[in-house]
């Protein structure tokens, strides 16, 4: 029997230091700013409880609006250095990696001008 999505463990392990989370457990839609804000709030909660969050980005397609609202505003809230040290992405495809890099770098440069 081939392992399929039903056998996937979404939250693989939790400790006080690191939590592994599947983004699919946080929302089913990756297209709106409202959903991006919801996921950002959940990530902020995880970051307040754990030293590091490893986020599984496998098998999703996110819009630029979702990415900006979720990950761009994490940069605004916490700063790029904090996010680089405390949030890791796994399973993201090439398109998602490019989008994440663009959004996070754009927001980090906006944050430095606002400071």
From TrEMBL:
It comes from Acidihalobacter ferrooxydans. It holds the Pfam family DUF4325. This is DUF4325 domain-containing protein. It comes from the Bacteria. Residues 36-93 form the DUF4325 domain.
